[in-house]
Amino acid sequence: MAFLYKADPVRGAQWGALFAQQAPDIAFHLWPDVGDPAAIRYLAAWQPPDNPLEALPNLEVIFSVGAGVDQFDLSRVPEHIPVVRMIEPGIAQGMVEYVTQAVLTIHRDVAAYAAQQARQEWKARHVRPASSRRIGVLGLGMLGTAVLERLRLFGFDCAGWSRSGGQIEGVQCHAGAAALDAFLARTDILVCLLPLTQETQGMLDAALFNKLPRGASLIQTGRGPHLNQEDLLAALESGQLDTAILDVTDPEPLPAGHALWTHPRVRITPHIASATRPEGAVETVLENLRRHERGLPLIGQVDRSRGY
Ligand code: NDP
Ligand code: OXD
Question: Where does the record place the D-isomer specific 2-hydroxyacid dehydrogenase NAD-binding domain (predicted)?
């Protein structure tokens, strides 16, 4: 049985070492060293080959090395091949760290103090209690839930929104399109942790920003195409939005000279909010290989009709 890894080669080498220790019977290949393409039964990829079955005729399962699968063209993957996204604790841990620092950066006026320091200005600003700051998270999946469970411990007034809602202790969970406006109207800091699908593409636009309280802020950790970047710039200019912290952009990298790079109330990181950790990833993948052999449901199998 052979397994092919086609993503970042440095992390791939770590996966290879873990496979050698934990599953020495599986032949692990690091792209582009495919070996005999007909022997590959499992593929883990960030970007699979264009026609996976032409390249790898006996493929049985495709794993995304990330939590999202929007980078896959699912129409090119035959129905009988399950597509599995990455569910491992390291991704959630990284995202919790990133969103927590972003929320606290906004909540405690870090950018304003940096500007004051540059002017050598010693001036205290009013500190709002966390209980008066309303956080709203779009997406109540693996990541949105982990983030809200942590943020509520600071005492923030926390809410979340998703297609089906959910239940998180101490968090108001809103469900479906009909509940979106009320959720936005009570949100001072909006965090996007939705998957990118036809329904969510372009959702962070002027119409949505206008439903937030004036002076709200955005933390964008989903995918670049969720956000209309021109609408964001206009909302920052008009004061409808105060601050944006962006981990993802469209395109990536954000081109040199783009207005977002130098906007004084925008912070940008290069899609590093969280990343799959090889130890957790290999553990989950090996468990899924055992499940696949036994015909059991796979952890993180994508529902193609929903696209996530
Ligand atoms: P999940 O699939 O676990 O959760 C997705 C959530 O979004 C669910 O609550 C789902 O609702 C909700 N949702 C999906 N579509 C809609 C819709 N049209 N309307 C309302 N709610 C919707 O995903 P994860 O939490 O694991 O990851 C979320 C995304 O985070 C990833 O897809 C990826 O794009 C991004 N990500 C970014 C990273 C970074 O470094 N910046 C790292 C990792 C992930 P329901 O529960 O009802 O199905
Ligand atoms: C992911 C990512 O989807 O890193 O895991 O963006």
Answer: 102-273
Instruction: Choose which residue among 69, 72, 91 to substitute to test ligand 2 binding: the one with the highest number of ligand atoms within 8 A of its C-beta.
Output: 91
Q: What is the pLDDT of residues 179-235, one digit of tens each?
A: 999 999 999 999 999 999 999 999 999 999 999 999 999 999 999 999 999 999 999
DSSP string for 119-149: TT-----PPPPGGG-EEEEE--SHHHHHHHH
Catalytic residue chosen out of the listed positions 11, 163, 271, 291: 271
Tell me the residue range of the domain where 284 lies.
2-88+276-294
129 Cα: distance to centroid of ligand 2 (angstroms): 32
Q: How many structural domains comprise the chain?
A: 2
Long-range contacts of 17-24 (CB under 8 A, 24+ apart): 18/278, 18/279, 18/282, 19/282, 22/282, 22/283, 22/286, 23/286, 23/289
pLDDT single digits (tens) 247-274: 999 999 999 999 999 999 999 999 999 9
Distance 133 CA to ligand 2 centre (A): 28
Ligand 2, atom 5: nearest CA belongs to which residue?
Answer: 66
* CA atoms 89, 90, 96, 97: torsion sign: positive
299 within a domain of the structure (yes/no):
no
